[in-house]
TrEMBL record:
Signal peptide interval: 1-25
Lineage of origin: Bacteria, Pseudomonadati, Pseudomonadota, Alphaproteobacteria, Rhodobacterales
Highest taxon in the source lineage: Bacteria
Annotated protein name in UniProt: Cytochrome C-552
UniProt source species: Paracoccus tegillarcae
Keyword annotations of the record: Signal
Amino acid sequence: MKNISGLSRLALCAGLAFGSTASIAQEAYDPMRKTVNPLAPATANPMVDAPVVEPDPELGNLPAGPGAEDTFYQCTACHSTAIIRQQSLTDARWDYLWDWMIEDQNMFEPDDETKDIVLTYLKTHFSSER
């Protein structure tokens, strides 16, 4: 048998002592035996459970539904729908951006009914709160 130094013996003993604990921990979590992906979103996630809304290619791939057409024409006067589709903002942030676009970016200010339709559409489809 080889001569083992004191430090090596200590490491060997620690490995033996903690080895049984490690195997128990390994049995408790073994990703190869797990049937559910631990990195997958929880099933209670509203974004996962939300109904799938088909994009409308005629309206720049905005989700089809009430307000899509008004939103398309209001917003694409200045930018593409890609900037809208990548958003996930709070409702308050949508309100702030609306005012900012009118006041600082010279966006055309529609009547109150159209404003409500567009903001409701944006908050329904592109809000971090839903």
